[in-house]
Amino acid sequence: MSSRFEPRIVGFLCRWCAYTGADLAGTSRIKYPPNVTPIRVNCSGRVDPTLVLKALATGADGVLIAGCHPGDCHYTSGNVKTLRRFKLLQRMLDQFGIERERVRLEWVSASEGERYARIVEKMTEEIRDLGPLNWKAKVEVEA
Amino acid sequence: MPKPKIAFNWASSCGGCEIAIFELGTKLVDVANKIDIVFWPAAFDFKYSDLEAMPDKDIAVTFFNGAIRNSENEHVAKLLRQKSKLLVAFGACAYGGGIPALANTTSREAIFKHDYKETPTTDNPQSIYPQAKAQVKEGELTIPDFYNTVKTLDQTVDVDYFVPGCPPVAEQVSNVIDAFVTGNLPPKGAVMGASDKSLCHECKRVKGDRKISKILRTYETIPDPEKCMLEQGVICMGPATRGGCRSVCLDANMPCRGCYGPLPNVIDQGAKMLSALASIFAAENEEDITKLAEAVPDPVGTFYRFSLARSLMRRTKQ
Fold first, then answer.
1. Collapsing DSSP states into helix, strand and coil, what is residue A79?
2. Residue-wise DSSP of chain B
3. Which among B50, B62, B65 has a CA at the least distance from the CA of B14?
4. pLDDT of chain A along its 143 residues, tens only?
C-alpha cells in the first residue's frame, strides 16, 4: 500500500452537542477517519480565533469547529458569536491563502453521531486532496 | 564616573521614531548631558566601521527602530547586539514589523515586478531588477539583499526590552530614557513605555450598547467626537491595543490603528481584534452576519496593521 497523506485536523467540539455527538458516533461504532484530534470546549463560542490560527501555524492541516445548531446553544447564543467570528475569520484566512476547506464550522447535535462521522469523512478527504498545509515551512522559506 | 554610552539605529522604518526622540525638545539636551551618544546615523556622522571597532558590550543601551527587511538591517542588528549590553526594540516596526511588514502579504518577486516594471512611470524594457551583486568593469558592486519576509528585531537577535508605538509618544520616550538613566528597569522581555490595559481603558469617549450594524471607513463619516468610535461603525483597534499613547488619534477624531501592539499575554493582536469586532456585530442570522463580515475592508491589513511580522501566521502563503 502506498503511504498516502493523512491530514492532521484539530477539532474544537462543544461539550453539549458536538462532543456528545462525536461520542455517539463512537459508541454506535460508526466507521470514520481517525484524522480529527478532538478538543472538548464548553462552547463553540469559546473558540478564540487565536486558537484556530495557532493550530494552523504550528502544524495542523485543518481545523474543525463544531457546536450546537443555532437556537440550541446551551449558553443561548454562544454559537451565534462563533458564527460571527467565523465569517470574518474566513475572509482573513482567504487573504492568508488558506483554502476554505481547511477551516470549517459545523453544527452537530448530541444525537447526530452519523452526521459528525460524515463531516469528518468529507473534511478529511477534501484536505487530503489539498495536501499538507505545512505553514511553518512556508513562512520560513527565506533567502 | 563615565557617562553611559547610548546608540540609536534606524533600520527598515520611516524615520518617525527618530523624530520621536527629537520630540523630547529641550529635554534631549538634559538627557544628552547624562549620556554619551556613540552611534546615531540619523543625527551624526557615524560609520558602521566605527561600530565594528568598538569592544563588545561597550554600549550600555541601543535603541533600535525599524524592522528587518534586508541583509543590511540584519547585519547591523547583529552587530549592535554584540556591542550592546541592552538592546531595545524601539517603535512598532522593531517590535511587531510595523507598516513595512504589511509587505508580508506579498513577495519579493511581486514587489520587484510592480516597482521596477509595472508602475506606469517605469520604463524598463530589459526587465532589469536589483541584484545583490553586480559585476561592472571596475569590479563587483554589492547592495543589501532584499528579503522575502519582513521580520521583527527579536526574530533576528535577542532583545531585552520593547517600546511600542508608531512612533512612541514623546512623554513615553522620556519615561523610557529616564528608566535607563536611573537603572530602574523591569524584568527582561518587558514592554516599556506603555500601559498594561487596553486603549479603551483610557479613552474618554462614551461607550454605549456596543453593537454595530454597519461598517464605515474613515472617509465616509465624521464621527461624533464624544461617542465610542466602534459603536459608530468605524473600526477602532482600541479593544485589542495597549494604551499608554494618551489616545492621541482618538483625540484627533481618528480611530486607533493598533500601533501600540497587543495587550499583555495576547499572542496575536489581529485575532483578538477580529474576535472583538465580530462579537459586536448586530446580526443574528447567517445572511446578515456574512454581509457585515464582507463589509470589513482588508481584514489582514486592518487587524495587523502594525503587527503582521509578530503574528501567528507572519505572512501570507507563497
1. helix
2. -PPPEEEEEE-BS-SHHHHHHHTTTHHHHHHHHHSEEEE-TTTS---HHHHHHSPTT-EEEEEEESBEEEHHHHHHHHHHHHHEEEEEEESHHHHH-TGGGGGGGS-HHHHHHIIIIISTT---TT-----SEEEETTEEEE-PPEEEEEE-GGGTS--SEEE--SSPPHHHHHHHHHHHHHT----TT-B-SS-SSBHHHH--SBP-S--BS--B-GGG----TTB-TGGGTB---GGGSB--STTHHHHTT-----TT-PPTT-S-HHHHHHHHHHTTB---SHHHHHHHHHHS--HHHHHTTTTTTTSSS-S---
3. B65
4. 568 999 999 999 999 999 999 999 999 999 999 999 999 999 999 999 999 999 999 999 999 999 999 999 999 999 999 999 999 999 999 999 999 999 999 999 999 999 999 999 999 999 999 999 999 888 876 54
Mutate to test the interface with B, among A47, A52, A76, A87 (most CBs of B within 10 A): A87
* CB contact at 8 A, A123 and A104: yes
Most distant CA atoms of chain A, gap in Å: 52
Q: Which residues of B touch A (CB under 8 A)?
A: 105, 147-149, 266-268, 270-272, 274-275, 277-279, 281, 283-284, 286, 289-290, 292-294, 296, 298-300, 303, 311-318
Domains and CATH numbers, chain B: 5-99+149-182 (3.40.50.700), 106-147 (no CATH), 199-303 (no CATH)
- For domain A9-140, the CATH architecture is 3-Layer(aba) Sandwich (3.40)
With a cut of 0.85, is the ipTM above it?
yes
* Domain chopping of chain A, boundaries: 9-140
pTM for the structure as a whole: 0.93
